[in-house]
Specification:
This protein has about 180 residues and is an alpha+beta fold. The chain contains three helices and seven strands.
C-alpha cells in the first residue's frame, strides 16, 4: 500500500491539466466580467454624449419644427450604435422663466417616452434661467441589457440631464405645421 501512495505522489503527468481545470472557470468569469464592465462604461459615455449633443443641437436654433425634431432624434439614435435604441428614452424640453425664479415647460418632445406637459413647473439649478430667458433641458435614460444575460441579470439603467442656453434667441419657439 505504501508503494502505491509513493507512486501516486510521484506521478505529475496530469497535474497541469487538473490545475487548469480548476482555474478556468474563474479566469473566464474575470474575462467576461471585464468585457461587460467595459461595455457598460462605453454606453455610459454614449449616454452623456447623447445628452449634451441633443441640447447643443436644439440650442443652435431660433425655432424648431417637427422635421427638426425628427432629424435630431435620428442623429441621436445613430450615436448609440451599435447598441440598441430600444432602451433609450430621450426628452428635450424648453424651460422658460416662470417669473418667480423658477422654470416652466414651454414645449417638450420625446423619443421612446412621454414628453413633459406644457406649463408644468420644472426644477432647475438656481440661477440657470435668467429673467425672461430659457434653457434647453435634455434628459436621457438608457436601460442597458447585456448581450449575454448570463453574468448580469438585470438591466443597468443610466440617467443624465444636460442644460444649454439658446444661442440666437432668449426663448426657442416650437412650431407645428
Amino acid at each position: 500500500m505504501l508503494t502505491i501512495l509513493k507512486r501516486i505522489r510521484a506521478a505529475q503527468g496530469g497535474m497541469a491539466a487538473a490545475e487548469f481545470a480548476l482555474i478556468l472557470p474563474a479566469l473566464l468569469a474575470m474575462i467576461f466580467g471585464a468585457i461587460e464592465v467595459t461595455n457598460v462604461l462605453i454606453v455610459r459615455a454614449d449616454v452623456a454624449n447623447i445628452t449634451s449633443s441633443a441640447a447643443d443641437l436644439i440650442a443652435q436654433e431660433s425655432t424648431v419644427g417637427d422635421a427638426d425634431m425628427t432629424n435630431v432624434f435620428n442623429s441621436l439614435s445613430a450615436l448609440i450604435y451599435p447598441y440598441s435604441t430600444a432602451g433609450a428614452r430621450i426628452v428635450i424640453t424648453s424651460v422658460i422663466d416662470d417669473g418667480h425664479g423658477g422654470g416652466k415647460v414651454a414645449w417638450s418632445d420625446a423619443y421612446n417616452g412621454t414628453a413633459r406637459t406644457v406649463g408644468t413647473a420644472v426644477t432647475v439649478p438656481t440661477g440657470l434661467i435668467t429673467t425672461g430667458g430659457s434653457v434647453v433641458m435634455t434628459e436621457v435614460t438608457y436601460a442597458y441589457t447585456t448581450p449575454s444575460a448570463y453574468l448580469v441579470k438585470l438591466p443597468v439603467t443610466m440617467n443624465n440631464t444636460f442644460y444649454s442656453h439658446p444661442r440666437r434667441v432668449a426663448q426657442i419657439a416650437r412650431t407645428h405645421p
